[in-house]
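Handover notes (outgoing to incoming on-call)

Open items:
1. Kelch-like protein 10: sequence verified, structure written out, both below. Nothing else pending on this one.
2. Nothing else urgent.
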Amino acid sequence: MMELIIEFAYTGSVNVTKSNAQRLFMAADYLNIVKLVQICCNFFEKTLCPHNCIGIWQFTKNYHTPELHLKVFHYVLSHFEEVVFGEEFLQLSAQDVSDIISRDDLNVRKEAAVFEAIIRWITHEPQEREGYADILLSEVRLSMMPTEYIQSHVLSNKLVTDNLRCQAMVSEVIECKDRILGRPRLPSAILLAIGGLKSSGIDLTNVIEAFDVRANHWMNITNLSEVPRSFHGAAFLGGHVYCVGGFARVFIATNSVCRIDLSTRTWQEVAPMHYRRGSVSVTVLNGCIYAMGGSNGHTYLSSAEFYQPETNQWLEIAPMHEQRSDASCTALNGKIYICGGYRGNECLRTAECYDPETKQWTLISPMGNRRSGLGVIAYDSRVYAVGGCNVTGCLQTAEVYSPHTNTWHNVCSMMTPRFKFGIEVVEDRLFVVGGFNGFHTTSNVEYYDSEMNEWSQACDMDISRSDLSCCVLSGLPNMADYTIPRDFLNLV
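Kelch-like protein 10 structure tokens:
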């Protein structure tokens, strides 16, 4: 280690490896070589994975590296479902396990994963750890589990049946399940609904609402200084939300693009697109934002372009085969799929695919229905086309495209017809938000579960609106700012 440190003193560089990182850090810390300590911290952060994060978390407890220690702990929480299958998890103390599973921001899709993790930890050394069963079970959000799972997996587990306190805990939850609400953990992603037309159908709004999927609750996060916008696209990229094109203030298509800094909730203009685009289709692929089609107020567009945040530039790509306004698009397996829309004289059934490697558009099988103002999203490794309208009126049907077979087939219809709505996937469920239901704008929200092939109702937005756009936030250091505070929910 001294040889490496002396070499660093003369050259300013050092070869940090997995085999020497901890010892080099300890030596640099002992000798108070601040720059070398930071280099080692950067190495730990860069090499974090589910198999080593707990070891690094434990190691950093003994040194004054609060920033790294916190980052590693958040990594453990974010990747918990993978971390629990590593050997390091089994070596934790009962207090460490409790500290992890008690957190609201523990990222688990289902609470069952927490129960199964503590069972795995206890059964690794059953004689020494069985006494902690009731302490750890008290940190599991049992009331957030399906009753069927509790009865078939929790109540039947020997660690529970052999512990009277555990039995009492579980029995109380089952008895009170219909009368109390559990304290939900924080979601791994937040759905934003941005702008649109208010219930009158003519007034643009700048309202932004954030949906906390775990609490089934919307929160208004509007910055009143932002210009109202509708018929636009929204995208989340590099920690920023971008609003692309649409109509701003009056019903004139714009080429402007704004982005919001999610730490300060302030907006700034970035480079405008080459074309004015209202009713534009927007998606993200390979670190770039793609904007396709739309209307400039006079012509329906087939042109397409993409934005590079690093250079703050828009570059044109090959035009689509069709002029498409009020279409919708998504990215799947490195390609962009755009479906339906309107070209001035008819609603479209056609769909096409863009490959950034060949820089070519290819027509794929047409949808079963003509759809304008539809929602298109990648979900469950396929492309879903939902709702919209055609000559017969507003649609509630949905269909799904398989890239492997180049075929469409119908899935369960939505509960409510809608077009010009928001669509996104959050935590393995497909959400549709607002829109026009054939009679008026709506605040209604519902979600689709592909495993069950059924739609369910979610909490309505605070305001009715159509022509809005949605995007999903994830991986932000301040995600809790976009969720409902758990203490305010008055939950247990």
